[in-house]
Amino acid sequence: MIREMMDIKAWMLGADELLQTIIYFNGFLLTSAFLYVVYDLGLWNIGLKRHAGVVRKDKDVGQFPPGYFIMLAVQLLPLTVTGFVRHDTFIMATRLTTLITVLVVYAISASKDGTFDTTWYRVWILFWISTAVIGPMIYVESIKLQSLVQNNERIISYSSVAAMILFVIHGQRVAARTLFHHFMNGNYSLKRFSLQVVRFVGFALQAIHYGTVYGLTDPVFQQGAIGAGGAMVVVIWSIIGMIIGRAAYKQVNGIEKRKELERVREGTARV
User: Fold this and answer.
1) Higher pLDDT, 72 or 90
2) Does residue 22 form part of some domain?
């Protein structure tokens, strides 16, 4: 009994040492950053394929859940600002890149006829280019704005947690329902499902890092943990939809085979 307890204690010490080594070399963050790249590429792929389908006038061009991009952008914005305030390279790089991807892919996906020469697109481009160019200039030159942001770092940080909660309640709920019906109706495309798996692992890894280093009260940990939970719910509902859809397919297929067999028997009996 004592030997078993010593073995368990030695195993726990070894696991803790391994965890500290991974954190020291930013293993969780580097892997999570790579998964953000994969997620961004997935968004680009789906958005461009949808745009190509619109141009070809395909019947089923695919679509993101309603309001998904808006909620995603709202969720990303406060944490992007938090990354700059905390001088956190991981947050700045991953959130800013994903935010740009979301804005561009949304613009591509929003086109109903595949063209971009409308007033809406001109205003959209003007607004974001102006924000990207003028925003940093105003921030760098304004001492008051810098002080306002720095003095309210915790409020800005925890607003990202609130935004993530809203995103999980609305955006991920819609995504879960959409993917559930997608698979339940017999569709087997795994692109959007794969993106949710990538989101879950990416959020989980960063939550482990920030929770271990900064504690459970850290807003980045909380945001990552909530995001991982939301993505997991989408994954679980997708799997349930797959199971139900597969069972329904087998049932319908079995009925059709029995009917075909009965028709063959009737034809043979008549002969």
Assistant:
1) 90
2) no
Domain of 211 in residue numbering reads as: 27-270
* Closest alpha carbon to 65 in 205, 211, 152, 195: 195
245 has pLDDT over 60: yes
31-40, 96-105, 166-175, 192-201: the lowest-pLDDT one: 166-175
Q: Distance between alpha carbon 245 and the CA centroid of its chain, in Å? A: 24
Structural domain includes residue 1: no
Taking the alpha carbons of 121, 110, 102, 170 in that order, is the dihedral positive or negative? positive
Number of structural domains in the chain: 1
Whether 9 maps to a domain, the answer reads: no
SS3 assignment, position 8: helix
Judged by phi (left if over 0) then psi (alpha if -120 to 50, else beta), residue 142 lies in beta
- Does 2 map to a domain? no
